[in-house]
Every structure is written in structure tokens, then in C-alpha cells.
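Trying the structure run again after the queue cleared.
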Amino acid sequence: MIKNVLIISMFSVLTSSARAVDYGVGSLNESDTIYIESSAKLEFIRGSTQHINGSFSLDPDNTAEGVKGALRVDLRTLKTGIDKRDEHMRDNHLHTVKYPYAYFELISVEHLPPQLVFDSDYKLKAVGNFYIHGNYREVEADLKVVRKKLPSGGETLNVVARFDLELDKYKIPRPKALFLKLAENIEIRAVFSGSHQITVQSIELPDWPKLH
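Done. C-alpha cells:
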């Protein structure tokens, strides 16, 4: 009897650990948007792009295995509403010819409950590496996560993530013409949904140095 209980327990553990699934993130979702917001004294600037793709892996019914994943954003597609400003941002600020993409590598999520219940809001904290402008740093992002059922029978995980980008720490220059209009700290806000119905794309992270 004891042997049978052990076998059942082992099978249960193996089954639960194997249930982690990939949630694709991609341009098929029109609501997926990355926002960059600068609240300087002279002007509020908001840029955005919907060119985000990647994936994350999670078992929403047994989160003990944790979460992992990576996202990539095409910085060449950022728009602020003024074409000339966008050109300056790409050429003199982010240097997108050399560094066209930014990446977020998810390392862990803190405060995860044992299970993500449908239609419940969870406030969590993500720890990961943010890659931009030829280097990367470890950052913490505030998360809001909601698990939703789809009419088709599938499900999505809807995520809002926020963290600050300190330009100087990433060696990103502020052009002199924008110095008084562009805040040193830029808020990054990512709004996206992960779905089983979106093809998972493998993201290859660049071999950039880590900053401390």
C-alpha cells in the first residue's frame, strides 16, 4: 500500500511539472503595446509600438515550477506623434541602426499564488534582465496579471508590467535639443497577452555586457 502511494505521488509530481505550457506573445494581438513615457518639467512625451513578440512558460494551475520567458521589442517602430522627434530618438538617442531591439529576459516572479484563478487580479513583481543600447541590467517590474478564458475554449494571461529606465545607467545619451524636455527616468509600460493560440517564437538574447 505504501509503495502504491509513493508511485501515485511521484506520478502526480511528474504530471504537474509537465503541465507548464508556452504562452506566445506576438503582433497578432492588437492590444499588445509597449509605452515609453517621459514626464519632464517642460513636456510630457509618450511613445509606443505594437511590435513585440516572444513567449513565457508557466503552469497556471501549479505555479511552483516558476515562470521563464523572453520578449523582444523593435525600437525602430517607436512613434511619439512627431516624425522629426522620432528620427532624432532613433538616430541620436537609441542608435537603432546598431541596436534595433530591446529585450526582457524573465528570471523569476515573486508573490505568485499556488494557482492563478480565472478573472482574478494578481499584483506581482518580476525580476529579469533588460537589454537595450548594447548592454543590460537586472531590473524589477511591477506586474498585474489576469487569467482569462476564451470563448473558443482556450485561455490567455493578460499582463501589465511597469518599470523605470534610467538613461544614464544604460549609457543612453540625452540629445542636447531634448535635454530639458526628456526626463532622466523613463517609465516603460508593457501591455500584452500570452496565448496558446499564438505561435511561440524563440528569442535569441544578444551577447552584451552586464552593467552594475
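Residues 1-18 have pLDDT under 50 and may be disordered. Worth checking whether this holds up in the mutant runs.
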